[in-house]
Amino acid sequence: MRSRAGLLGIGLLALSEAACAPVARAAPPASTALTFTDDQLARAREVRDRALQDDTAYELLRSLTSRVGPRLAGTPGDAAAVAWALEQLRALGFQNVRAERVKVPSWRRGECRVELLSPWPQTCAAVALGGSPATPAAGIEAEVVPVTNLDELARIDSSRLAGRIVFFTGRMNRATDGSGYGRAVTVRSRGAAEAGRRGALAIVIRSVGTDRNRLPHTGAMRQDSSDTRIPALALSNPDADMLEDQLASGRPVRMRMTNTSSWADSTWSANVIGEIPGRERPRELVVLGAHLDSWDLGTGAHDDGAGVAIMTAAARLIGEAKSRPKRTIRVVLFANEEFGLSGARAYAREHAAEAGLHVLGMESDLGAYLPLGLRSRVPADRLPAIRQMQSVLAPLGVEYRGNDASGDADVGQLVPLGIPVCDLDTDASEYFDLHHTANDTFDKVDPLLVRKNVACYAVLAWLAADLPAGFGRAPAAPATTATPARR
Amino acid sequence: MRSRAGLLGIGLLALSEAACAPVARAAPPASTALTFTDDQLARAREVRDRALQDDTAYELLRSLTSRVGPRLAGTPGDAAAVAWALEQLRALGFQNVRAERVKVPSWRRGECRVELLSPWPQTCAAVALGGSPATPAAGIEAEVVPVTNLDELARIDSSRLAGRIVFFTGRMNRATDGSGYGRAVTVRSRGAAEAGRRGALAIVIRSVGTDRNRLPHTGAMRQDSSDTRIPALALSNPDADMLEDQLASGRPVRMRMTNTSSWADSTWSANVIGEIPGRERPRELVVLGAHLDSWDLGTGAHDDGAGVAIMTAAARLIGEAKSRPKRTIRVVLFANEEFGLSGARAYAREHAAEAGLHVLGMESDLGAYLPLGLRSRVPADRLPAIRQMQSVLAPLGVEYRGNDASGDADVGQLVPLGIPVCDLDTDASEYFDLHHTANDTFDKVDPLLVRKNVACYAVLAWLAADLPAGFGRAPAAPATTATPARR
User: Fold this and answer.
1) Cα B307 from Cα A100, distance rounded (Å)
2) Other CB atoms closer than 10 Å to residue B71's CB: what's the count?
3) Could you report the predicted ipTM of this complex, rounded to two decimals?
4) Rounded to 10 degrees, what is the CA torsion of A411, A96, A467, A345?
5) Which chain B residues are closer than 8 Å to A68 by Cβ?
6) In the A/B pair of chains, how many CB contacts fall below 8 A?
């Protein structure tokens, strides 16, 4: 955590700079105030306390997971999710509810099977990584070469890789900030491309996940047009352990894999949008984002049904507040985060002209876990307002963590447009037990933690939409990007 | 727990009865002593302390799970397990190592698929129960009727069951003594037969397990020749939750299931036996039992690879002790516990003539968890010796719990022959998270808990094999059977 004194210092400096400006000796007019009044903060506390008694989000999540379920972009489940979201937003009283069409890639899982043939026959729990090509119908049978990570792969002589199946053994570390993910996920993103370039026939990776269940973790591969495309599968952690044990015998390990996943033509999905209009400046917006798509193995409860439900319920609470804030709250449920950020990129492109009307963006896409910290990416003179916002969340245990917010995967696409963002850090230590697995289901969600998340976003959105001066433009280049990649 | 004072009372009563017998005033000859000398107890403590430093069992378990893996009776994996066990016992210095052939049933899983069609389409994680017949190739499609348990089924009018799929919703409770299992497992054992008799087309049950993973629990159905046989599948707990949620909407829920499991002719497996010969009365035996077969979904790490490894390592430690006990330790690795106790029944039948040579039997079949209690089933005059045995385990946290041991599933088959038994109760609170699922793998096993179990059985076996008077014959009818069914 950054020192609070240091951050307060920045805020005071900003205020004193403002005090040197020509109009500074007089109180700024109400429309340009950089901080909140006691009355505004009191209203935010009311919203917070109502959120802590409200299960709208939890029930929305139950409905999404039970009635829609898996919703990989471009599938019938995805279309059902779009219809569900439009229906829910309308039923909850949102205005300007609409679907904005988004082109999405179309990859279908098929079936996959991994067997060890020798020295000791075993069947492994495995899944295809998103984007993996199929194997030939007869499968691929080859000796397994274990490699820790991409760095080690680069040091191995190509003759040891050619005609083999490369097994990436690196294990993701559990951490409250989810930082193990960024380090481990590189082999999922680029392992197949790098191993394919060196002559390997296929790769298997140890699942990028912190659990010990025989439920492998899928996730997208990054594929460039020049890449050699080879099949890429993930083993569950227990199966990776067992494969390592067989390799430790020193005998050659032969594996056979089959996979029938396939690509089809791009198809259509949609960003689903609904608004709670502001009472004074309805054209100006605070964006609350989450993604509507999910991986196909589970029902996308934490990833990112939770975000969809939390952001929708937070905006609805604001819509029902005794006094609405000055600006509009826009909920954006993005299409296809998982497989290439299609919805966020389309939104950034198509709404670029109104970037100046976007006062602040936030995203919930790390499950419904305990809120721990607030980060911002705002001009220095807005930090006192951010600290006031955090002060309303302090009773929930939320500390201020610095001005290095990323906006996360989807809303992060708005940062290059100069749109300020905040991140709510939550305890990520259990998220990667479930992430991208069949186990990401509603029973794993704690309703009290859902309420806490709704409370945080409702407070932040209410206040952001009511700050007279807004948040200016986002600082362009962060000193650090503390939040991990979360896709 | 029974009161220790009460049990001591029984023991003292037994001693005073002995004191009234004709030869009682003199010390009994060494060959009939009913209690242990300090020297015997000291040797048992030595065995215990060596066990607490020894990873033979853990490494045996690693080998069994990695090099053999799943070993459902009658499969190639089962044959590999028999070969593995013979090899290991010989390599560890056991004598009279042999396989005694046992006829076993032959059921094969095939593939199963469960989909909800309406009101909201979903695919469920499901497995066939052991023994389930296949569905017709086109599957079974019907409305789902939820029923809590067999009692509720009996109260429902048959017209509501005919042509339907019955869904048993009852949930297993977590408990240290595993007692939730016995209550919940009745629907797995008899649900299909009872629902079939009432006209249902098939059943699905909520998994008999305490976890929240999308890894359903299999297990045997009990089928009598007069039963109407209908397909029987288990849903994972999260899928059962989701199905209940759809049912709670009040709309009819239609399910489609397909299952391709099949029966073949009975085939052969074997009980694998090895001995550590006694130094004075080698024909007399203490039996250490576990079962070599496992369900097919996992690698049978806790169920019952742990028992195989623990009992083998305990006997080996005794074989390596400075002084071996008077009698022989016989390790019996039973065939096909899971699917009908074939090995235990064959052993009881074929060794009935030498029942009188079996001094005591024990079984490890509740995973490698923390030892908590010792139960016995011995004549009252042997209770002081049992309490001495427990005293050596007391530093490990093992209390004495009563004279109501069952011998568990396999060794329990010896009790009708009058063979005394002891049970080591272990903490069963996590066992049913994994039991009969794909998740029962080596990574779930704690090596320190394996050592503690080995220490307990090694102490009990060493002392039992060295008690001059032996344990007489087992009391026939227990007042209660406290240990739960564990299959």
Assistant:
1) 60
2) 29
3) 0.90
4) 20
5) 120
6) 88
